[in-house]
Input
Amino acid sequence: PRLELAFTLFVTGLVFIGLREFFRLAAARGIETCAWCGTLLGTLLVPVTLLQASTPVRVTDLFLLAVIALGALHVLLGRHTLAGYAVSVLGVAYVGLLPAHFVMLHGLPDGPGLVTLMLVAVILSDTGAYFAGKSLGRHKLAPRVSPNKTWEGAAGGVAAALAGMAVLYLLHTHAGIRFFPVRSLPAYLAVGAALAVIGQMGDLVESMLKRDAGVKDAGGLFPGHGGVLDRCDGFLFAGPALYYVVTAFIPFSRYV
Output
């Protein structure tokens, strides 16, 4: 319980900062939102996930209530624009609801191992994509969104994630580290490849938002490396994807 609470507080703090960054992007784009309302509602979605085991309320239910609340606030505050309301809702979903799945994933059987697996896959994918793109990159992946990313880099990122998953599998089966789920090597590789692709898509989506807002970085929390959104963009998509793979599609955990 203490580990779960500490993890939840950590994610909540990152979400609060990330939402501040997101609404600054909207302001840079000239879109008038309910920034503080969206920041508060989006941040609250994270700790609420701890209540799901003891109440019938789900974080998705509260997100729908947040959508209604934001609509009412936009009307009452006189911010009567489609763009403003849509971006306020997007902020709560993109930077609030998606990271709430990190806590949900952590709360599953083998949850800390699954979170670690997700982190390893996305980090290695980013690293592999960078080095492969620098040395082998020829064909642009999405030049209008991120001119430096290439198909060769994307393939290198997937390869690096696959290598990382193989190492985790070997650590579990041969080194006696029982931290990760008990599954076959093909299952590890399939999940690693999927997370690498999804994580890279998350990176491109965040780049799209920054480019439209006309800024280089979403924030400055990490000098020289941007803000929370810049560092966590791949995880925003990968975390929920792994959660639903585990709970709904492929029983990756031996307990599910």
Notes: The first strand starts at residue 140 and ends at 142.
